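Troubleshooting: if your tokenizer reports a length mismatch, compare your output against this known-good record of 517 residues.
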Amino acid sequence: MFKILLVDDNAVHLQSLLSYIEPEKFNISGIKISQSSYEAIEICREYKPDVIITDISMPEMDGITLTKEIKKFLPDAQFIFISCYDDVAYFKSAIENEVLAYLMKPIIPEDLNKALKKAVEKAAKNTETANGLLVSRENFIYRLLFSENMTMSYVHEAASALLMQEYTHFILVKAKFLDTNDDVFDTYHDLREFPGIKKAGIVPVVLPDGNNGMLVLFMSQSGVGFQETVRRVICRKIKSLFDSYAVTVKAGASELGGNLFELKVLQKQAEDALRTNLELIRSDYIAHSDISLKNSEFNFIAYNESLAGMIRPDITPAEINQFVKTFYTKDLDYDDTLLRELYLSTISAMQAVLLKQGIDIAQIMGRKDLSYHKIDRFVDLEHFLNWLKNILSLTGEYLKNYKGKTQFALVQKTINYIHENYSTISSIEEIASKLFVSYSHLRNVFKKELGITIYDFLLSVRMEEAKKLLSTSKMNLSQIAYKVGYSDYDYFKTVFAKYNGITPREYQKANNITPEP
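Known-good structure output:
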């Protein structure tokens, strides 16, 4: 069964398309429609359509840009373009984006059905091939991990048959879901998807691990940047699962392995890392290399107790400086290993104190810094102490301003970002990404605080800037459209007229502006 999404800013055209499609003829289980490019992206994230039929000329975001955005997280989706324009540039873009068909309006039903048949057939082939290989690889890895009767010849033959013999670098990740939520496991394909790794040449194999976890084997032909990429995509996946299902996930990762015969060793390493994460660190992701640290003479119990006393809103710079000075009184070698231990201990102790106040340390440090943090960042004691002073100061400020001000600050940052970047913003998700928050959280907070959507605010800023240019500048209309964030004048004209009740040209004339040729 296949799912279809139709995108066109014209409601009449959408209804025409709907009337031409026969669901039973193409084994279609559902059809969704959208008149907004931004809404279409959001629908795709949740609905995951197999085929997307989109108008190429739309006011918010053109079909070409929309296709590129969707392909970032739905690389196998099939696209069909529809357009009023017989333009070589559009044809070229369609080819570059591997669009299956380019149909001219008014749509001929027979042409649409031919294109749809081709798209459904290709989607079916991709699904069958990908799913078959995925399931076979999952079964093979499961046997490697849990069977005691595996011969070397079988492993080599199976790896070759499953196109796995080319991979020479492996990392195993064990994740645990701290909140039970059946919706996550009902949508098992969500767990299989890791946007961003395909370009890096990394392949995942996902296995359920009991009722509340999963195992993921990441395979790569190259070790360059492999561990950093795995850390990044797992943290991103954990965040997306929390945003989509309100499920908290913690993960532990193995060291870098060199062949499939090491899987049981990698599994043990991942289990050790996860256990340490759950018992001590409580971060999104901990690698086995992060915890494989030697014991030192440093008194971590006393350190953690002293540190806990520093986590308060009335902390002063003088107190922080005095606390930091105690490090110099200890006759110890603050080598790389001890600095790594100090970092982990600091994060753990601070998190324990903050959680009692309902605060995640990621709210202060930033989830990106905490989750993707390279634990060996500190080159010497001075470097670590500068970081420690900074984080203690930030925590004090955060606690002082915590009540009722965090949402307002986020809205203000969003407003500032839009005013500074309105001409280049391609999507609302871009704003959320730049501010290091989830799109859904930013959207909800903004609407609650201001009573309008982020898109409506962005539109109002663009329209006000457009009117300012139209009434004071002699630039031609295409230049003005580009200046305020529209790559095509026709899109700009449609939006401007709908928003202001008058065309850009009429607005210029009303202000006695004659553009330069």
